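Protein Record: Sequence and Backbone Structure Tokens
======================================================
Scope: a single protein chain, as residues and as a discrete description of its fold.
Tokens: labelled as protein backbone structure tokens, with as many entries as the chain has residues.
Position: the record begins directly beneath this header, with no further notes in between.
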Amino acid sequence: MRFISRLWVMVVLAMGGAPALAEETKGPLPYAEVTIYEAAKIITMEPGYPEARFVATADGLILGLAQELDELDAWTRGRAVTVNREFVDHVLMPGFVEPHIHPMQTIMMLPIPFISPESWELPGKSYPAIRGKEAYEKRLREVLAESDDKLFITWGHHKLFHGDMDKAELDRIAPDRPVVIWQRSFHEIIVNTPALDLLGIGTEAEFVAEFNKPGIDPTHADFASGVIHETALFNGVEKLQPYLFSAEKTQQGLAEMRQMMLENGVTTSADLAFGGFGGPEAESRLFKSLYDQPTTPSRILAIPVAPLVTGDPNVWLKDMKAKYDSAKFFFSNRVKLFADGAFFAQYMQMNPPGYSDGHEGKWLTEPDELLKQTERFWDAGWNLHTHVNGDKGLDVVLGITEQLTPRNGQDIVMEHLGYSTEAQNRRIGQLGLFVSAQPNYIRILGDAYAKTGLGPDRAAQMSRLGSLERKNVPLGLHSDFNMAPINPLYLAWVASNRISLDGNVKAPKERLSLDKALRAITIEAAQVIGMDDQVGSIATGKKADFTVLDRNPHDAGAAGLRNIRVQGVIFEGRWFPAQ
């Protein structure tokens, strides 16, 4: 409290003042109580007014910025003013924007143990990096012994780091325990025999019947190997729901997700698979139980997956908004579409020469069906967010985009964009598209895919983001948790350094500049979800959302971004410490 002073400022009207001024000041002033935050530096991300030392806020909004306190006189005269100097040695940036997460996936993943190629720091727990087949099996046995779950589930296996895994191998390791291994991509699960029995699909006939349904490619569920992936995955998740979404685990997941957002400075996010796990109604009720609480310092935009928007899209949207919209959980006319498969599983569709081992990528939505879905929402006036990972998949998406009737005011966003060619990036720029990129591909997979699948040149040029910056493409960086941590400064560090797990710099010309990397977690991240008029920069009239940092990112430089510490957030004018 020693940092906070109270200033009571009374307006005195000069007797000879101009009549117009006297007329304007009659009656009560708006924003009677004002809080002014002082910082060592306020980085606004606004080119016209890039820095400040003071920002005035009231009722959750930004009233104005200044270099000196007395310059804010317009917002202090006649008002009760609190000057908060708690952050005089810190740096304020706009509240970070996470433009692509999956809260239901986050809730189900946070309570289960991670065994992955990289280390993880999560709320209340740490997981070491595990590489090699023997090391993976040893760690699996350890965490299995520590668990008394009826169905044991772990996440993070990747065959290029941990060796092959299938039902027979998992039966050898755990013959008497039901076990499910979630592959590093999240798009694939491996189930052993006891687990299949527990889930009621223990015979081949039961298994085939479960996955012989409309919209599921029958090759995406294999009884012999126990592998369930891509179009069959949601049905597999449905079978796992009682074990993933118990009341206890759901509450744990919600609490840990809130804390993870806070610790990493995220005040705005977008759910890019809304409704896909539990249905729109159930997920709305669950998310509102978190976001509508005054103790939750963040908001979320729900972007539904295309097949769940039934009937007229605009009627669906009007109904959902009427039932569930609130200040911190809300909908807009945006939809998620899917092209090709997972990047972490090498299921993305690649143009010739394809994969070095000759395997084929997979479609999440066949191109003809994707065209129909795209046209349906485009004609309804919606903005499109299309999951696409490989260059063959991108050719399909760009080809569909070029067939659409041009309209004003609609955005088309390429989500993930794991591998694109320079020619394709030119098309993205020429078409005026946006990109929401997942930069962690290059960090985790840059060396592994050079040896297996893509070769050294294509692997080095995954996440070709420097090219997009040179073409002035609006760009957001996202985690797609748990493909990467929900940690925007880490994502910015990856994109602006491109250093692999083994310490190799990959295609340095594709590094983002420091300025672009910071824009990609603030104002441009807000732009790709259509919220840059409200958040993403510190500007008059926007939400009073600030991330409090222990140092200036411009002083730290690109190399130091991941070492910056988030002290907490000011969300709509209220301070929430990270710890």
About this structure: The chain has three domains: 30-89+544-578, 108-247, 334-485+497-537. Residues 247-263 form the longest helix (17 residues).
